[in-house]
Specification:
alpha+beta; five-stranded mixed sheet; five-stranded antiparallel sheet; 2 helices; about 30% helix
């Protein structure tokens, strides 16, 4: 059954990654997973690294490995601002594993309650999510 559509715009620091009409957006916020449909109430959410799915229809799904960022839903428009959004076929598993290893080493060497530790923990979370998307 076709649903009403709304515009989703996905932006990274490098520029626009996606800007189309979809039936549903599915992602992970800092408090849990969320599915957004047309006519959703206004929303502002902090996003965690995960696989973001944009449903053009029930069978046409656009997927991205999504880094941390923000989601704003207003009217019939969703704005997704994230550090990275990478199509699964563009993910380099070996590179992600190397970056994950580096982040774990940085976390092991960082002092407690420092920005260095917080950054390393964010990177670990991101690369673990990207690895899950690359293998799934």
């Amino acid at each position: 059954m076709a649903r009403a559509t709304f515009t989703v715009e996905v932006l990274t620091p490098e520029g626009e990654v996606f800007n189309e009409e979809v039936e549903m957006l599915s992602t992970m916020t800092s408090v849990g997973s969320i599915g957004v449909l047309a006519h959703h109430q206004p929303l502002l959410a902090i996003l965690d690294p995960t696989e973001m799915r944009l449903y053009r229809s029930e069978t046409d799904i656009v997927r991205f490995a999504q880094a941390e960022g923000y989601l704003q839903m207003t009217g019939e428009h969703a704005l997704v601002l994230v550090e990275e959004a990478i199509a699964p076929e563009d993910l380099d598993r070996a590179n992600i594993e190397a970056r994950l290893s580096d982040a774990r080493s940085a976390a092991d060497g960082a002092a407690d309650a420092t920005e260095e530790l917080a950054r390393a923990q964010r990177d670990i979370k991101r690369y673990e999510a990207f690895l899950a998307v690359a293998t799934g």
